[in-house]
Design goal:
- By secondary structure, the protein is α/β, with parallel strands linked by helices.
- It folds into two domains: 215 residues, Rossmann fold (3-Layer(aba) Sandwich); 270 residues, 3-Layer(aba) Sandwich (UDP-N-acetylmuramoyl-L-alanine:D-glutamate ligase).
- Helix content is 40%, strand content 15%.
- Strands 1-9-18-17-16-15-14-13-10-11-12 form an eleven-stranded mixed β-sheet, with helices on both faces.
- Helix 8 runs parallel beside helix 17 and helix 16 crosses helix 17.
- The radius of gyration is 25 Å and the shape is elongated.
- The two termini are 23 Å apart.
- The model has no long low-confidence stretch (mean pLDDT 96).
- Bound molecules: ligand NAX and potassium ion.
- Ligand NAX binds next to helix 1, helix 2 and helix 3.
């Protein structure tokens, strides 16, 4: 896990790290520049002309060092500078002094935009030192650079994006942001996706113990955290070990939702899946998914009763495609009151709970709630437009009701009642399509059924779902549908080297 710190905390952490290690900030800048170049050289060829735009702070210092290192490796680079070197930081100037003279270094104001050409733009204008919205030449630069039809890469943070809050005005729109050591909070806001692009986190050697003295309950999940949380099954494991899962939902016109959840749970590794749907769904379910068992409620069109003997199941997920009829609400209440095992609450179950205080009171520590932004807004009855406030609200909700909350979106946020918030690293824009939420419900329910704790089921579920989305997106691009995501779940295990 990477602890997420504020810009102020990062600066203080850097100081104590340098002091304790007895190294110079210039050396750390060199490490950061090397880390950037290592990533760059793995991804881009020497045939692409690079224009590096530098400020005169330490972000600019990174840029100048990057220019020297890439040029030394045979990459064609030009530097364009905003600001005056005499106002520059010591480390910026130290790097400027050793910039080889064969590298063109022009003031930004001298660029002839009619004739300006390059393949890759690297933004090292401003990083975590940003302290006001862009104006003047920085604003001008960002506007000009955003309009270029080239690859754009930001060093540490896109210029103009504050580290801890929502952007005010314009910012550099990167295809990739290569950030150092740990992501900055605002790089994880879905609202900033167009500025951050794909986020790459590069280690610059500040090890975890230096983070201990800094208070933060927010973490960025890494692959190794997921590997640690998975259960290992063996040859003699039988289907009972993989869990008996019940999925409740579906209504006329929305049976597909529960089918997607069921298929996703099967592909995630569940042993036995049962579904509980309105009567009309029986032949449809049975003819379309042969691996699931189907039970029906009393009514034909809507879910109007609860299943018998709920204790037969290791876990229950409820909500996909369920509708919000009064009778359905009563059936939900019945299930929430009588079932004591772990549960996933999604979609229409959330919409029903949002309107009923008595049902909110039935939320327990055994439950994972999986709202998207709109559903969350209904649950908290408040505007959650601003990401800083939304993250706080998620914490408040989880602590008030004692449940795990998965707030879905880019970098889905998992909040636990203990007050820890995890940002998920996997996912893709191609997950923004109907039914992917139902897929997530099936994946998370599957892990609960396999005996994972609510926290681990949420973390592993969101991670695998996002990774499956990435893999599906690589093949299908904007044609990705929820079923493609399901088909890629098995590959996520292969990808992580899991059996
Ligand atoms: N702190 C760390 O851990 C490390 C930091 N490094 C680099 O250092 C950067 C931070 O450097 P600095 O603190 O010098 O800050 P920046 O280089 O981000 O900004 C430089 C200066 O620009 C001015 N400024 C702020 N907002 C402005 C605006 N809107 N328009 C015009 N000028 C503005 C401020 O006076 C600020 O100090 C990081 O983003 C990263 O790139 C790396 O070299 C290595 C490790
Ligand atoms: K930058």
């Amino acid at each position: 896990m990477l602890k997420i710190l504020s810009a102020r905390q990062i600066k203080s952490l850097e100081e104590s790290y340098l002091e304790e290690k007895g190294i110079l900030s210039l050396e750390l800048m060199e490490t950061a520049a090397e880390a950037f170049c290592q990533w760059y050289m793995q991804n881009f060829s020497r045939r692409q002309d690079i224009a590096i735009f530098c400020g005169t702070g330490n972000n600019g210092g990174d840029g100048i060092a990057i220019a020297r290192l890439l040029s030394r490796q045979g990459y064609p680079v030009c530097v364009y500078t905003l600001g005056d070197a005499k106002d520059g930081t010591a480390d910026y100037n130290s790097n400027l002094n050793i910039l080889p003279t064969n590298i063109v270094n022009k003031p930004f104001s001298n660029i002839d935009w009619e004739r300006f050409r390059c393949h890759v733009i690297i933004d090292a204008m401003l990083g975590i030192g940003l302290n006001k919205p862009l104006e003047g030449k920085y604003l001008d630069a960002v506007k000009k650079l955003n309009s270029q039809k080239t690859m754009r890469i930001a060093v540490d943070m896109p210029t103009g994006l504050p580290s801890d809050k929502l952007v005010d005005g314009e910012a550099f729109q990167a295809h990739y942001t290569v950030t150092f050591q740990t992501p900055k909070l605002s790089a994880l806001f879905p609202e900033h996706a167009a500025y951050v692009g794909d986020l790459v986190v590069k280690d610059i050697g500040i090890d975890g113990k230096y983070f201990n003295g800094y208070e933060s309950s927010r973490y960025f999940v890494e692959e190794k955290d997921i590997l640690e949380r998975h259960k290992i099954f063996h040859k003699a494991s039988h289907k009972g070990d993989f869990g008996k899962v019940l999925l409740v939902g579906g209504s006329k016109g929305k049976l597909g939702a529960i089918m997607l959840s069921a298929k996703a749970a099967l592909r995630t590794g569940s042993g036995l899946i049962s579904t509980f749907v309105p009567g009309f769904g029986l032949p449809i379910m049975q003819s379309s998914i042969h691996e699931v068992m189907v039970e029906t409620c009393t009514g034909n069109d809507i879910l109007d009763s609860a299943p018998e003997n709920l204790d037969r199941f290791d876990t229950i997920a409820i909500g996909p495609g369920m509708g919000t009829d009064e009778k359905t609400a009563e059936a939900l209440k019945n299930i929430l009151e009588s079932y004591k095992g772990k549960m996933v609450i999604d979609a229409d179950a959330l919409n029903i709970i949002a309107k009923r205080k008595d049902l909110k009171e039935l939320i327990t520590s055994q439950m994972i709630l999986t709202p998207h932004l709109k559903e969350f807004e209904r649950m908290v009855g408040d505007d959650v437009k601003y990401p800083e406030g939304r993250i706080e609200k998620a914490l408040e909700f989880s602590q008030t009701y004692g449940c795990v909350l998965i707030l879905k979106g880019l970098h889905s946020l998992i909040t636990t009642p203990a007050g820890i918030q995890y940002f998920n690293p996997t996912g893709s824009q191609f997950l923004a399509t109907g039914g992917t939420g139902d897929v997530l419900t099936g994946v998370v329910a599957s892990y609960l059924g396999q005996g994972y704790s609510v926290e681990n089921a949420a973390l592993c579920g969101v991670y695998h779902h996002g990774l499956a989305g990435q893999l599906a997106g690589e093949d299908q691009r904007r044609g990705t549908i929820a079923s493609d995501v399901i088909e890629k779940i098995p590959e996520t295990y292969k990808n992580l080297g899991l059996s």
